[in-house]
Amino acid sequence: MSNSENNVASYAIIGFGKIGQALAKAFARKVIEVSVATTRDPERFASDAATIGPTIIPTTLTEAVKADIIFLAVRFDAHPDVAKALPTWQGKTIVDVTNAYGVPPEELGGQPSGRVVAQAFTGGKLVKGFNHLGAAVLEQDPAVQGGRRVVFLASDDDDAASQISALADNLGFSPVQLGGLSEGGLLVQAHGNKWGQLIFKDLVKFEG
């Protein structure tokens, strides 16, 4: 599946609930091929994928994790199971779209949820992003009244942050990099039963 030999990144979305489908619609609008997978047989959600568009490719989890850039759109507590799909995530960028709302901070060892996810995906580069918008907003065209809907990104890896920033821009969003997971990332991560300050903020950047 990987197109890295041709210097063209390949994409996959793990999880095909409301958020996963909203992300798929963003790719479909730009006619960018993306694989979608769950733990179910791909035939069980193939019709939903086809409804979104021909560039949305239902596949197995085993095949989907071969992509270069992987959007993690599952429940937070399901991320360790996804991480087991590969012995190492070296060379891959994981976009963490999960929200650990309701998870006691002590269960995270006092760490931001994004860093906990990063530790599960050994060897991979993690970017926290696209998680601050609800599915109903995320699935909409990000072009709004002459502006572009903002997506916040945070990562401890500058190269990965730049990579996903460029992708977000290509998908029509206006990316805003917040810095590392323990600084700006905390603004878009839930803390127990409290949301981060920027979660569910529907901001639009006007250009020109």
From TrEMBL:
Domain Pyrroline-5-carboxylate reductase catalytic N-terminal: 11-99
Pfam families assigned to the protein according to its UniProt record, in alphabetical order: F420_oxidored
InterPro entries, per database record: NAD(P)-bd_dom_sf, P5C_Rdtase_cat_N, STEAP_metalloreductase
Source organism superkingdom: Bacteria
UniProt entry tagged with the keyword Oxidoreductase: yes
UniProt keyword list: Oxidoreductase
PANTHER family: DUDULIN-RELATED
Record's protein name: NADPH-dependent F420 reductase
Lineage: Bacteria, Pseudomonadati, Bacteroidota, Cytophagia, Cytophagales
